[in-house]
# Entry
Amino acid sequence: MALASEEQLRHTVRTNVILGALLMVATLPGRTQGLGLVTEPLLAELGLERVKFANLNLWASLLGALVCLPVGRLIDRVGLRPVSFVLLGGLALAVLGFSFHITGTAMFFFWLFLSRALGQSGLSVAAIASVAKLGQGKNGPALGIFSVILSLLFVVGFVAVGASVVETGWRHAWREVGFVIGLVVLPLAVVFLKEPSRESRSHEFAEGGLGLREALKTPLFWIGSGAVASFAFASSGLGLFNEAVLAEVGHDRSVYHLFLAVTTGFALLGQFLCGWLSARNSLSLLLGWALAAYAASLALLVHASSSLVLWIVAGLMGLSAGFVTVLFFAIWGQAYGSRELGRIQGVAQGITVLASALGPVAFATVHDQLGRYALALYGLAIIAMIFAMASFTLGRGHFRVRGNG
# Structure
């Protein structure tokens, strides 16, 4: 029986790693990077000013973040599969509505909000829960593989959608995305997504765990979520203005494209490495070192006029991004068990979405006031280092603060 149970658990993990990655990639039309694929033709067609577009996008992201908590609660109460079904169906309709029925600013904001709420917020919580809610306590390697698969699928998605936008226009490309979500990803999720059951969990997580209110009272939650949010805040702002930041230190667009490729490669390496290390090392220490490396990369970027320093920055930035991605998926189940993991992840995801929405605003504001991005980079490096030191204070206990439920 034990061997059968272990084999069932491994099968569930393998299935949900793949399906979870598909769910996360389906959030593409609700993410900043995905919307960036259609931003220019969309602005030209609607005649929207960039500042107005940025403000509409900010409010759509902030309001969309409110969906994270109820989605987490529903996953805990109703189950992962039915919630994923509703989110995927709603997102498919929102993306199709985005492509068919944008006739002015009001409709644009409506469909943008739905895409952000159902995709970036709600479906992201479900995707993370599909693997993390298995609650093995040793799911770091699985989460590392999950992160690598979704990163590769995102690359394929960006290339495919980008090519379609160029060849057929943004509306046709967005319709294709909507149909793929509704006719491909949704049926696969309904048929193959495994609902984690008590029998499929390890004994360590079968009983006990903390609830959301208990988790919110622990310093660990605020250090962990704050650390990831500080990373999201910096990476979203830097991601939007990366080319301008590199130009400020003397590098042209060709270097910018190569910089993105190098950081992506190191991020994949970081995901593999973190997945391997997390099975035998403290997650708190791994998070601390990842934030410290990211802080160093931000500070060094101000002085990256030479190629050597620039590629050191790219390596540190990519590795730390890979580590933070895996750790964000892993820490909540390690710390609080599976009893209300969906709700806990929902709050953490909401904080991250808020931070990523505000990051570009902070970068733009600093540049408008001072004419340079350097102070923003230094300030964010200090914040990242503060959270790195706070993570180190959690000690060597793998974020474990679970109760008896």
